[in-house]
Protein 1
Amino acid sequence: MAGECLFCRIAQGQIPSHKVHEDATTFAFLDIRPLTKGHTLVIPKSHVLKFEDLTPKDAEALFQAVHTLLPRICQAVGAPASTVAINNGRESGQEVPHVHVHIVPRTKGDPGGPIHALFATRPLLQEREFPALAEQIRTSAAKPAR
Ligand code: AMP
Ligand code: ZN
């Protein structure tokens, strides 16, 4: 619930944070347990669990803020690269139930790997399964929030 949500309370200034950006619809602050120096979380001010639950306008504003912040964060910590990621739903590892984009500055030799390293194994899909799967996605009636 929004009233009890940690990130809603941070965006409202009720819980202290190291703010790096704020505009009408988004807020960004340093992660308290950073994976690398400069690890930043970018959130919508509206209380929304998953990315697809955002309105198109809020989704656009969220990624606009990510776009603005990336070079600033990387310059501040001298990182030539970054990993940008969302744990989108509990099954994916999301712990705080308010959508947030992780910006993790990356440098050569840091202890992290690529997103592909999240999975120790991969499903063995037959080549003939790909066209049907792509068609299923193209014709799906599932919709994000409006
Ligand atoms: P996730 O697992 O994607 O939900 O990530 C939640 C992130 O929030 C973690 O990286 C935490 O370190 C971070 N976090 C939790 N509490 C705070 C806080 N009070 N201020 C800043 N970051 C926090
Ligand atoms: Zn919230």
Protein 2
Amino acid sequence: MLKLSINVNGVRREAEVEDRTLLVTALRNHFGLTGTHIGCDTAQCGACTVRLNGHAIKSCSILAAQANGGEIQTIESLASENEPLHPMQQAFNECFALQCGYCTPGMIMTAVDLVEERPGISRKEIAASIGGNLCRCTGYDSILDAIELGGKYLQQQREES
Ligand code: FES
Ligand code: FES
């Protein structure tokens, strides 16, 4: 067993987990953060994307032990229940960029990472960069619209602050 101690969404969280526990399992089963979804469990679909130490990763692709001592941001960090939506969530909402929503938390975490790391990124580059996130229902045009719009909203927010 491993004593896991990680900062999740700004809060220090600890748990005893088996050595073989995946990060996504620790987040969902030990910390109750079920906004991070499991689609394939084999690092293909991106539904489990979170940020580890500021970079988007597929949380089914690493052990919780590998994140020990690190800082994790999950979809729950973007907006609490009674808060306004995060600009990227707002953009997904406005562009109708979701249907069943299964891919959406991972898609949004990838999108936030992308536009924060590469402000002004082109639509073509966005399309190439979200290749690791699969959506089986919405269609990618509206997702690309949303990521472009979310990037603009975030830029405006930065300029106003
Ligand atoms: Fe992790 Fe699909 S559940 S990539
Ligand atoms: Fe259903 Fe993407 S909205 S999988």
